[in-house]
């Protein structure tokens, strides 16, 4: 029985962190992405988490629906995870957007305004504590930290090392091993 339980755990981890994961439909795709977002808390180190909660923010149209809500029953760094859905217009129009996010997920609905989002984050005094994740095909290449890309029906990660180095975040070698590494930022 112990071997069966261990086998199930290893299978789940293999599915979450395999180099490629088949995503035939949106439901499966966003369940996988929600799993990755949670597991980033285990493979990324934040400089220090001073808030009472660990905040995962979704900017733009929420593509997860209810698939991400169960994360609020989990914790990261002994803090309860809270999910915030940020309005694109408020975020982009504010001169100093208040985003106490540890993970900022930039939805595909923002793809035309990615560069503006990156500029807003750079203006944030807590920018060194924010992991910026997105899902457009060019997200990591244009300056995002981690981009989910769908290649041949498979979800893959791209990590922009230059963007991550500008923060106080440290990414585990295990996570770097399964990702395509991007070295620079496309002008």
Your description of this structure?
The protein is of the alpha/beta class and 187 residues long. It has a single domain (2-182), classed as Rossmann fold (3-Layer(aba) Sandwich). The chain has helices spanning 2-17, 26-43, 88-93, 114-123, 161-165, 173-177; strands at residues 21-22, 44-45, 53-59, 75-76, 79-86, 103-106, 131-134, 146-151, 154-160, 170-171, 180-182. Strands 1, 3, 4, 5, 6, 7, 8, 9 and 11 form a nine-stranded mixed beta sheet that branches. It is globular, with a radius of gyration of 16 Å. The relative contact order is 0.15. The model is unreliable at 1-24 (pLDDT under 50).
How many domain regions? 1
By CATH reckoning, the class would read Alpha Beta
- Biggest β-sheet strands, sense, barrel: 9 strands, mixed
Structural class determined from secondary elements: alpha/beta
Number of helices: 6
Number of strands: 11
> Which regions are unreliable across 5 or more consecutive residues at pLDDT < 50?
1-24
Range of strand content: 25-35%
> What is the fold named in CATH at topology level?
Rossmann fold
* Rg calc: 16 Å
- Please state the overall shape, judged from the principal axes of the Cα atoms: globular
Note the run of SSEs as H and E: HEHEEEEHEHEEEHEHE
How far apart the termini lie comes to 55 Å
The CATH architecture category equals 3-Layer(aba) Sandwich
Quote the average pLDDT: 82
Helix content: 25-40%
